[in-house]
Amino acid sequence: MESTQVDFYSLTLPQLRTFLTGLGKEKFRAQQLYKWVYEKNVTDPEMMTNLSKDFRQSLMERVTFKLPEMVDRRISVDGTRKYLFDIGNRQTVEAVMIPSDDRMTLCLSSEVGCNLACKFCFTGKQKLKRRLTAGEIVGQFLQVKMDMGETRLSNIVFMGMGEPLDNTDAVFDAIEIFKSDYGLNLSRKKITVSTSGLVPQIPLVTQSGTRLAVSLNAPNDEIRNEIMPINKKYPLKVLMEACREHANTTKDLVTFEYVLLKDVTDHIDHAEQVSQLIRNIPCKVNLIPFNEHPDSGYQRPSRNKVFQFQKRLVDKGFHVTIRRTMGRDIFAACGQLTSQYKGRPQQQNVSTGVLG
Ligand code: SF4
Fold first, then answer.
1. 117 lines ligand 1 (CB under 6 A)
2. pLDDT of residue 334
3. Architecture of domain 69-330
4. Per-residue pLDDT, 124
5. 2-64, which class in CATH?
6. pTM (2 decimals)?
7. Where are the domains of the chain?
8. Nearest CA to 182 among 6, 32, 46?
Protein backbone atom coordinates (compact mmCIF):
# COMPACT_ATOMS: atom_id res chain seq x y z
CA MET A 1 0.00 0.00 0.00
CA GLU A 2 2.82 2.37 0.95
CA SER A 3 4.32 2.37 -2.54
CA THR A 4 1.16 3.73 -4.15
CA GLN A 5 0.74 6.61 -1.74
CA VAL A 6 1.15 10.16 -2.99
CA ASP A 7 2.44 13.15 -1.07
CA PHE A 8 -0.43 15.62 -0.73
CA TYR A 9 1.86 18.63 -0.35
CA SER A 10 3.52 17.95 -3.69
CA LEU A 11 0.27 18.18 -5.63
CA THR A 12 -0.85 21.35 -7.37
CA LEU A 13 -4.61 21.75 -7.62
CA PRO A 14 -4.79 20.44 -11.23
CA GLN A 15 -2.57 17.49 -10.26
CA LEU A 16 -4.83 16.73 -7.31
CA ARG A 17 -7.90 16.88 -9.58
CA THR A 18 -6.28 14.36 -11.93
CA PHE A 19 -5.38 12.12 -9.02
CA LEU A 20 -8.91 12.23 -7.60
CA THR A 21 -10.43 11.57 -11.01
CA GLY A 22 -8.31 8.40 -11.02
CA LEU A 23 -9.99 7.46 -7.74
CA GLY A 24 -13.38 7.98 -9.38
CA LYS A 25 -14.08 11.22 -7.52
CA GLU A 26 -15.47 14.51 -8.79
CA LYS A 27 -12.97 17.26 -9.63
CA PHE A 28 -14.47 19.74 -7.15
CA ARG A 29 -13.32 17.45 -4.35
CA ALA A 30 -9.82 18.78 -4.95
CA GLN A 31 -10.89 22.26 -3.82
CA GLN A 32 -12.57 20.77 -0.77
CA LEU A 33 -9.41 18.92 0.16
CA TYR A 34 -7.21 21.98 -0.37
CA LYS A 35 -9.49 23.97 1.92
CA TRP A 36 -9.34 21.36 4.67
CA VAL A 37 -5.58 21.21 4.57
CA TYR A 38 -4.45 24.74 3.72
CA GLU A 39 -7.27 26.83 5.22
CA LYS A 40 -8.40 24.74 8.16
CA ASN A 41 -5.12 22.92 8.87
CA VAL A 42 -6.93 19.59 9.00
CA THR A 43 -4.92 16.67 7.65
CA ASP A 44 -6.75 13.76 9.23
CA PRO A 45 -9.22 12.48 6.61
CA GLU A 46 -11.46 11.21 9.43
CA MET A 47 -12.19 14.82 10.33
CA MET A 48 -13.10 15.93 6.80
CA THR A 49 -16.78 15.77 7.50
CA ASN A 50 -18.12 16.77 4.10
CA LEU A 51 -16.42 13.79 2.44
CA SER A 52 -18.05 10.38 2.21
CA LYS A 53 -16.79 7.55 4.39
CA ASP A 54 -15.37 5.55 1.48
CA PHE A 55 -13.60 8.64 0.14
CA ARG A 56 -11.99 9.30 3.53
CA GLN A 57 -10.90 5.68 3.59
CA SER A 58 -9.34 6.02 0.11
CA LEU A 59 -7.49 9.15 1.25
CA MET A 60 -6.07 7.35 4.26
CA GLU A 61 -4.85 4.55 2.04
CA ARG A 62 -3.56 6.57 -0.91
CA VAL A 63 -2.39 9.95 0.41
CA THR A 64 0.25 10.98 2.93
CA PHE A 65 0.30 14.31 4.75
CA LYS A 66 3.85 14.25 6.06
CA LEU A 67 5.80 17.44 6.69
CA PRO A 68 9.58 17.63 6.93
CA GLU A 69 10.49 17.29 10.58
CA MET A 70 11.77 20.41 12.29
CA VAL A 71 14.87 19.26 14.16
CA ASP A 72 16.29 22.57 15.24
CA ARG A 73 15.14 26.15 15.63
CA ARG A 74 17.30 29.09 16.59
CA ILE A 75 16.15 32.60 17.28
CA SER A 76 18.51 35.52 16.80
CA VAL A 77 18.64 38.62 18.98
CA ASP A 78 17.19 40.49 15.98
CA GLY A 79 14.17 38.16 15.71
CA THR A 80 15.44 36.17 12.74
CA ARG A 81 14.57 32.49 13.06
CA LYS A 82 16.59 29.74 11.47
CA TYR A 83 15.00 26.32 11.10
CA LEU A 84 16.59 23.02 10.28
CA PHE A 85 14.45 20.33 8.65
CA ASP A 86 15.15 16.64 8.41
CA ILE A 87 14.10 15.35 5.00
CA GLY A 88 15.19 11.76 5.55
CA ASN A 89 18.38 9.77 5.06
CA ARG A 90 20.07 12.14 7.50
CA GLN A 91 19.80 14.98 5.03
CA THR A 92 18.73 18.40 6.18
CA VAL A 93 17.85 21.80 4.76
CA GLU A 94 17.45 25.19 6.34
CA ALA A 95 14.83 27.90 6.10
CA VAL A 96 15.14 31.37 7.57
CA MET A 97 12.35 33.70 8.66
CA ILE A 98 13.44 37.33 8.46
CA PRO A 99 11.26 39.91 10.21
CA SER A 100 11.15 43.57 9.25
CA ASP A 101 8.82 46.50 9.94
CA ASP A 102 6.38 45.77 7.16
CA ARG A 103 6.84 42.10 6.29
CA MET A 104 7.74 38.62 7.43
CA THR A 105 9.88 37.03 4.77
CA LEU A 106 10.58 33.33 4.60
CA CYS A 107 13.73 32.27 2.78
CA LEU A 108 13.27 28.73 1.46
CA SER A 109 15.70 26.05 0.34
CA SER A 110 15.19 24.17 -2.90
CA GLU A 111 18.06 21.66 -2.83
CA VAL A 112 20.35 19.86 -0.40
CA GLY A 113 23.74 21.25 -1.36
CA CYS A 114 24.28 22.89 -4.73
CA ASN A 115 26.29 22.12 -7.84
CA LEU A 116 26.79 25.71 -8.94
CA ALA A 117 29.84 26.07 -6.70
CA CYS A 118 29.86 29.85 -6.27
CA LYS A 119 33.12 30.44 -4.47
CA PHE A 120 31.81 32.74 -1.75
CA CYS A 121 28.83 30.54 -0.82
CA PHE A 122 28.80 28.14 2.08
CA THR A 123 26.10 25.94 0.52
CA GLY A 124 28.13 25.76 -2.68
CA LYS A 125 30.87 23.97 -0.77
CA GLN A 126 28.58 20.95 -0.49
CA LYS A 127 27.94 19.17 -3.76
CA LEU A 128 24.31 18.68 -4.71
CA LYS A 129 22.95 15.78 -2.72
CA ARG A 130 19.31 15.94 -3.65
CA ARG A 131 16.70 18.20 -5.17
CA LEU A 132 13.72 18.80 -2.90
CA THR A 133 10.19 17.79 -3.86
CA ALA A 134 7.46 20.40 -4.11
CA GLY A 135 6.04 18.93 -0.91
CA GLU A 136 9.30 19.46 0.95
CA ILE A 137 9.37 23.09 -0.18
CA VAL A 138 5.73 23.69 0.77
CA GLY A 139 6.41 21.75 3.99
CA GLN A 140 9.11 24.22 5.08
CA PHE A 141 6.55 27.01 4.72
CA LEU A 142 3.83 25.15 6.62
CA GLN A 143 6.11 24.24 9.50
CA VAL A 144 7.31 27.83 9.89
CA LYS A 145 3.74 29.11 9.54
CA MET A 146 2.70 26.87 12.43
CA ASP A 147 5.68 28.00 14.48
CA MET A 148 4.83 31.66 13.87
CA GLY A 149 1.26 31.24 15.18
CA GLU A 150 -0.81 34.36 14.55
CA THR A 151 2.04 36.17 12.78
CA ARG A 152 1.45 35.92 9.05
CA LEU A 153 4.26 35.07 6.67
CA SER A 154 3.89 37.70 3.96
CA ASN A 155 6.74 37.04 1.53
CA ILE A 156 8.68 34.11 0.16
CA VAL A 157 12.15 34.24 -1.34
CA PHE A 158 13.90 31.28 -2.91
CA MET A 159 17.31 32.29 -1.66
CA GLY A 160 18.10 29.46 0.74
CA MET A 161 20.14 26.38 -0.04
CA GLY A 162 20.30 25.41 -3.68
CA GLU A 163 19.71 26.98 -7.06
CA PRO A 164 15.92 27.09 -7.56
CA LEU A 165 16.19 27.08 -11.33
CA ASP A 166 18.12 23.81 -11.11
CA ASN A 167 14.97 22.25 -9.63
CA THR A 168 12.27 23.86 -11.71
CA ASP A 169 9.55 21.18 -11.61
CA ALA A 170 9.37 21.16 -7.82
CA VAL A 171 9.93 24.90 -7.35
CA PHE A 172 7.22 25.98 -9.78
CA ASP A 173 4.76 23.37 -8.49
CA ALA A 174 5.38 24.72 -4.99
CA ILE A 175 4.83 28.25 -6.29
CA GLU A 176 1.49 27.16 -7.80
CA ILE A 177 0.46 25.83 -4.40
CA PHE A 178 1.58 29.04 -2.67
CA LYS A 179 -0.40 31.12 -5.16
CA SER A 180 -3.55 28.98 -5.31
CA ASP A 181 -6.77 30.66 -4.12
CA TYR A 182 -7.66 27.42 -2.39
CA GLY A 183 -4.09 26.84 -1.25
CA LEU A 184 -1.93 29.33 0.59
CA ASN A 185 -3.25 32.29 -1.37
CA LEU A 186 -0.06 34.33 -1.58
CA SER A 187 0.22 37.05 -4.18
CA ARG A 188 2.67 36.29 -6.99
CA LYS A 189 4.24 39.66 -6.27
CA LYS A 190 5.22 38.45 -2.83
CA ILE A 191 7.25 35.55 -4.18
CA THR A 192 10.80 36.03 -5.45
CA VAL A 193 12.90 33.46 -7.27
CA SER A 194 16.60 34.13 -7.09
CA THR A 195 19.02 32.63 -9.58
CA SER A 196 22.74 32.61 -10.04
CA GLY A 197 22.10 32.94 -13.77
CA LEU A 198 20.56 29.82 -15.33
CA VAL A 199 19.48 31.79 -18.37
CA PRO A 200 17.35 29.19 -20.21
CA GLN A 201 15.10 28.80 -17.15
CA ILE A 202 14.49 32.52 -16.53
CA PRO A 203 11.38 32.55 -18.81
CA LEU A 204 9.79 30.11 -16.34
CA VAL A 205 10.01 32.81 -13.68
CA THR A 206 8.43 35.23 -16.15
CA GLN A 207 5.57 32.80 -16.87
CA SER A 208 4.96 32.20 -13.17
CA GLY A 209 4.49 35.92 -12.63
CA THR A 210 6.81 35.92 -9.64
CA ARG A 211 9.62 38.36 -9.11
CA LEU A 212 13.11 37.70 -10.37
CA ALA A 213 16.30 38.29 -8.41
CA VAL A 214 19.69 37.66 -9.95
CA SER A 215 22.87 37.09 -7.98
CA LEU A 216 25.05 39.35 -10.06
CA ASN A 217 27.98 39.68 -7.68
CA ALA A 218 30.58 40.79 -10.20
CA PRO A 219 31.11 43.75 -12.51
CA ASN A 220 32.52 41.86 -15.51
CA ASP A 221 32.91 38.39 -17.01
CA GLU A 222 36.48 38.00 -15.85
CA ILE A 223 35.66 38.32 -12.16
CA ARG A 224 32.32 36.55 -12.48
CA ASN A 225 33.94 33.56 -14.22
CA GLU A 226 36.28 33.35 -11.29
CA ILE A 227 33.73 33.48 -8.46
CA MET A 228 30.64 32.03 -10.21
CA PRO A 229 31.51 29.21 -12.63
CA ILE A 230 28.01 29.32 -14.17
CA ASN A 231 29.11 32.54 -15.87
CA LYS A 232 31.35 30.58 -18.24
CA LYS A 233 28.23 28.93 -19.61
CA TYR A 234 25.93 31.96 -19.53
CA PRO A 235 28.05 35.11 -19.60
CA LEU A 236 26.84 38.52 -18.56
CA LYS A 237 25.69 39.60 -22.02
CA VAL A 238 23.13 36.79 -22.31
CA LEU A 239 22.20 37.03 -18.64
CA MET A 240 21.49 40.76 -18.92
CA GLU A 241 19.44 40.17 -22.08
CA ALA A 242 17.31 37.59 -20.24
CA CYS A 243 16.79 40.03 -17.36
CA ARG A 244 15.75 42.80 -19.75
CA GLU A 245 13.29 40.45 -21.42
CA HIS A 246 11.80 39.49 -18.04
CA ALA A 247 11.44 43.10 -16.91
CA ASN A 248 9.87 44.18 -20.20
CA THR A 249 7.36 41.34 -20.16
CA THR A 250 6.32 41.51 -16.50
CA LYS A 251 6.78 45.26 -15.97
CA ASP A 252 8.38 44.26 -12.67
CA LEU A 253 11.77 45.42 -11.52
CA VAL A 254 14.54 42.85 -11.51
CA THR A 255 16.52 42.77 -8.27
CA PHE A 256 20.26 42.48 -8.68
CA GLU A 257 21.93 41.05 -5.62
CA TYR A 258 25.56 42.03 -5.36
CA VAL A 259 27.81 40.51 -2.73
CA LEU A 260 30.63 42.88 -1.89
CA LEU A 261 33.86 40.97 -1.38
CA LYS A 262 36.75 42.98 -0.04
CA ASP A 263 39.30 43.77 -2.77
CA VAL A 264 37.50 41.45 -5.22
CA THR A 265 34.21 43.10 -6.16
CA ASP A 266 34.09 46.27 -4.07
CA HIS A 267 36.22 48.70 -6.07
CA ILE A 268 34.65 51.97 -7.12
CA ASP A 269 35.41 51.12 -10.76
CA HIS A 270 33.37 47.99 -10.27
CA ALA A 271 30.35 50.12 -9.34
CA GLU A 272 30.90 52.03 -12.56
CA GLN A 273 30.98 48.80 -14.58
CA VAL A 274 27.86 47.49 -12.85
CA SER A 275 26.02 50.68 -13.78
CA GLN A 276 26.92 50.08 -17.43
CA LEU A 277 25.80 46.46 -17.30
CA ILE A 278 22.33 47.16 -15.91
CA ARG A 279 21.68 50.57 -17.41
CA ASN A 280 18.86 49.48 -19.73
CA ILE A 281 17.11 47.16 -17.30
CA PRO A 282 14.30 48.31 -14.99
CA CYS A 283 15.81 47.19 -11.72
CA LYS A 284 16.93 47.79 -8.20
CA VAL A 285 20.20 46.79 -6.62
CA ASN A 286 20.69 45.12 -3.27
CA LEU A 287 24.24 45.29 -1.95
CA ILE A 288 25.24 42.51 0.44
CA PRO A 289 28.41 43.08 2.43
CA PHE A 290 29.93 39.61 2.58
CA ASN A 291 29.07 37.51 5.62
CA GLU A 292 32.23 35.68 6.52
CA HIS A 293 32.09 31.94 7.11
CA PRO A 294 34.69 29.26 7.77
CA ASP A 295 37.30 28.79 5.04
CA SER A 296 35.60 31.19 2.65
CA GLY A 297 38.86 32.95 1.86
CA TYR A 298 36.96 36.23 1.42
CA GLN A 299 36.49 39.19 3.69
CA ARG A 300 33.83 41.77 4.36
CA PRO A 301 34.63 45.27 3.05
CA SER A 302 34.67 48.28 5.36
CA ARG A 303 31.44 50.22 5.85
CA ASN A 304 33.05 53.12 4.07
CA LYS A 305 33.73 51.05 0.98
CA VAL A 306 30.15 49.78 0.98
CA PHE A 307 28.72 53.31 1.20
CA GLN A 308 31.02 54.57 -1.55
CA PHE A 309 29.91 51.73 -3.81
CA GLN A 310 26.28 52.51 -3.08
CA LYS A 311 26.76 56.24 -3.68
CA ARG A 312 28.32 55.70 -7.09
CA LEU A 313 25.33 53.66 -8.22
CA VAL A 314 22.85 56.08 -6.67
CA ASP A 315 24.58 58.95 -8.46
CA LYS A 316 23.99 57.04 -11.68
CA GLY A 317 20.26 57.01 -10.93
CA PHE A 318 19.78 53.53 -9.51
CA HIS A 319 17.72 52.53 -6.50
CA VAL A 320 20.26 50.83 -4.25
CA THR A 321 19.76 49.29 -0.83
CA ILE A 322 22.30 47.75 1.48
CA ARG A 323 21.06 44.53 2.97
CA ARG A 324 20.91 44.72 6.72
CA THR A 325 22.67 41.67 8.07
CA MET A 326 20.13 39.58 9.95
CA GLY A 327 20.64 36.49 12.03
CA ARG A 328 24.39 36.66 12.03
CA ASP A 329 24.60 35.34 15.59
CA ILE A 330 22.79 32.17 14.52
CA PHE A 331 24.66 31.83 11.25
CA ALA A 332 21.52 32.48 9.23
CA ALA A 333 22.80 35.38 7.18
CA CYS A 334 22.90 35.33 3.41
CA GLY A 335 25.36 32.79 1.99
CA GLN A 336 25.86 31.11 5.34
CA LEU A 337 23.31 28.31 5.04
CA THR A 338 24.41 24.73 5.10
CA SER A 339 23.30 21.36 6.41
CA GLN A 340 25.00 21.57 9.76
CA TYR A 341 22.83 19.16 11.66
CA LYS A 342 24.92 16.45 13.18
CA GLY A 343 23.14 15.66 16.42
CA ARG A 344 19.88 14.12 17.49
CA PRO A 345 16.61 15.95 16.90
CA GLN A 346 16.20 18.90 19.23
CA GLN A 347 14.34 22.16 19.44
CA GLN A 348 15.61 25.12 21.31
CA ASN A 349 15.51 28.85 21.54
CA VAL A 350 18.79 30.66 21.35
CA SER A 351 18.96 34.37 21.90
CA THR A 352 22.69 34.98 22.01
CA GLY A 353 25.95 33.50 20.90
CA VAL A 354 27.54 32.45 17.68
CA LEU A 355 26.31 29.05 16.75
CA GLY A 356 27.62 28.48 13.28
S1 SF4 B 1 25.03 31.11 -4.26
FE2 SF4 B 1 23.22 29.89 -4.77
S3 SF4 B 1 23.72 29.01 -6.77
FE4 SF4 B 1 25.69 29.69 -5.90
S5 SF4 B 1 26.49 27.88 -4.83
FE6 SF4 B 1 25.32 29.07 -3.34
S7 SF4 B 1 23.28 28.12 -3.34
FE8 SF4 B 1 24.32 27.48 -5.23
1. yes
2. 52
3. Alpha-Beta Barrel (3.20)
4. 79
5. mainly alpha
6. 0.91
7. 2-64, 69-330
8. 32
